[in-house]
């Protein structure tokens, strides 16, 4: 199983980015997929989830209304659309899959929000 994130970068406050997580070795449609982030010196925190099958989703309170998680089954990929970015959103963003009772992690992609 491999998860590969991309789409991070430097963006100004108020800007947008879309992160991608391409999975291989598991079907994202049958896995619980999540995004997490970790800022320097802080614990990793949950950002958003999309459930297997019915694609119901949920968000951490500080991200709700600004971030959108989605899934493209034909590409075996999940996305995180991030709008109205703030300096506090600066972190490494990780993709996580929970499949057949095992957690898998990607290597992360850096998001930096700064003017």
Description:
- 0% of the residues lie in helices and 54% in strands.
- The protein has 115 residues and is mainly beta.
- The strands form 2 sheets. Strands 2, 4, 5, 6, 9, 10 and 11 form a 7-stranded mixed beta sheet that branches.
- The protein is globular, with a radius of gyration of 13 Å.
- The chain starts with a strand and ends with a strand.
Short description:
The protein is mainly β and 115 residues long. It has no helices and 11 strands.
How is the topology of this model organized?
Blueprint: E1 2-6, E2 9-11, E3 17-24, E4 32-38, E5 45-50, E6 57-59, E7 67-72, E8 77-82, E9 91-99, E10 102-105, E11 109-113
Parallel strand pairs: 2-11
Antiparallel strand pairs: 1-3, 3-8, 4-5, 4-9, 5-6, 7-8, 9-10, 9-11
Quantity of strands, as a count: 11
Q: What's the pLDDT, averaged over the residues?
A: 95
SSE string, helix = H, strand = E?
EEEEEEEEEEE
How much helix is in the residues?
under 10%
Largest sheet: 7 strands, mixed
Gyration radius over CA: 13 Å
Residue runs with pLDDT of under 50 for 5 or more positions? none
Please report which band the strand proportion falls in: under 5%, 5-15%, 15-25%, 25-35%, 35-45% or over 45%: over 45%
Features:
mainly beta; 4-stranded antiparallel beta sheet; 54% strand; 115 residues; 7-stranded mixed beta sheet; single chain
């Amino acid at each position: 199983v491999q998860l590969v994130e991309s789409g991070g970068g430097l963006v100004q406050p108020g800007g947008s980015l879309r992160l991608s997580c391409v999975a291989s070795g598991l079907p994202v449609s049958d896995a619980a997929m999540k995004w997490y982030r970790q800022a320097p010196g802080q614990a990793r925190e949950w950002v958003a989830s999309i459930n297997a099958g019915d694609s119901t989703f949920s968000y951490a309170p500080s991200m709700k209304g600004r971030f959108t998680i989605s899934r493209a089954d034909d590409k075996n990929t999940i996305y995180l659309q991030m709008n109205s970015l703030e300096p506090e959103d600066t972190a490494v963003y990780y993709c996580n899959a929970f499949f057949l009772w095992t957690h898998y992690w990607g290597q992360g992609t850096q998001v930096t929000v700064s003017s």
